[in-house]
Amino acid sequence: MRLGVLDVGSNTVHLLVVDAHRGGHPNPMHSEKTQLRLAEHVEAGRLTEAGADGLVRAVARAKTAAMNAGCEELLAFATSALRDAENSAAVLSRVRAETGIALQVLSGEDEARYTFLAVRRWYGWSAGRLLVLDIGGGSLELAAGLDEDPEVALSLPLGAGRLTRQRLTDDPPTRADLDQLAADLDAVLAPIARQLRRGGPHDLAVGTSKTFRSLAQLAGAAPPSAGLRAPRMLTDVGLHQLFGFISRMASADLAGLDGVSPGRAHQLVAGALVAGGAMRALRVSELHICPWALREGAILHRLDTLGVPTPSQRPWPLNDRHPATRNRGTGVTEPTVNVR
Fold it and tell me: Residue 170: which of 247, 80, 81 has the closest Cα?
């Protein structure tokens, strides 16, 4: 089937279209992004009218692109920015009324679970017990476990964009602000690390998504031109050396570095602080960088449920039911949208 995934994040609205079948490897066919910076349109806890207008336009464009690409289904979800907005229900209603797309707001735990599934499928069972970290614009997701469904899945409001707006207001940040944020991250992450270690030591530690990919490339990992399957690593030593360099640079200069998206350059330093704090707390000296993350996890789970008449023992929010139906006993409307 041809399947589309629409991910409304804190920074971008990203449509990914793949060809795949149950048990098969998703083959990317089309990808497009709108740099919306939705989280920056949240004021006094509410998404502004301008932000909602931009979201409606972006979702409408993505729907048209999905239809033009021949998608049979579109899985549409939103993460931290809409999850945190007090008026998210009204915004979601407007998006559905004006575009026909029913965005489902994923919990932070579900974000971590989908991402963990993608990482597990990428590395396979031989990877043993996995520890997975994902730094987004609004939140940090962490998960650990031996199976496809993690034993522990957590989300913390420690996204790179959020911390930049709240804690690193100068450009470049002051040394005092950097030191204070690093100390605060250590304090917050210490008990989280203990919780993640309760199930036992990890065999493989993995970082996913754009922040980790950018940091790894700047620290010497293979560039995108090397291909999706080129092994990429981020070490604590490499990150420490990199931080000493980028922490003194203005965002305009960071945007000129290879591997740094201009729209995310301003939050790279905060992302590096979160990455370093998490690696210290979790006693991780090196992270493998996985090219699959949340969107691929949603795709893989959808493919797993094709033709399955009953939900798994632990229901996932994105499954194989028609959008007009509900999970019996949960009252949760399913997000699958038929775009034909």
Answer: 247
Residue pair 160/135 in contact (Cβ under 8 Å)? The answer is yes
Instruction: Tell me which residue of 10, 3, 49 sits closest to 26, measured CA to CA.
Output: 3
Distance from C-alpha of 39 to C-alpha of 82, rounded to nearest angstrom = 8
DSSP track, 214-267? HHHHHTTPPPGGG-TTS--EEEHHHHHHHHHHHTTS-HHHHTTSTT--TTTGGG
* Percent above pLDDT 70 for the chain: 90
pLDDT(274) > 60: yes
What does each C-alpha distance from 152 to 75, 196, 243, 281 come to in angstroms?
A: 25, 6, 29, 16
Core vs surface per residue 274-299: b (16+ CB within 10 A) or e: bbbbbbbbbebeebbbbbbbbbbbbb
Burial of 45: CB neighbours in 10 Å, binned 0-12, 13-18, 19+: exposed
| Structure tokens belonging to residue 118 | 């993608």
232 close to 216: Cβ distance less than 8 angstroms: yes
Mean of all residue pLDDT scores within the chain: 91
CA distance 156 to 153: 10
Q: What is the pTM of this model?
A: 0.90
**pLDDT tens per residue, range 277-300:** 999 999 999 999 999 999 999 999
- Token pair belonging to 302: 């959808």
Could you tell me the two tokens for 150?
């993690």
Q: What angle do CA 243, 245, 249 make, to 5 degrees?
A: 105
CA distance 99 to 110: 25
Provide CB contacts within 8 A for 64, sequence distance 6+.
none
Q: 97-147: per-residue pLDDT in tens?
A: 999 999 999 999 999 999 999 999 999 999 999 999 999 999 999 999 999
> Is the Cβ–Cβ distance between 22 and 306 less than 8 Å?
yes
**333 by DSSP, 3-state: which?**
strand
Q: What is the pLDDT of residues 72-100, one digit of tens each?
A: 999 999 999 999 999 999 999 999 999 99
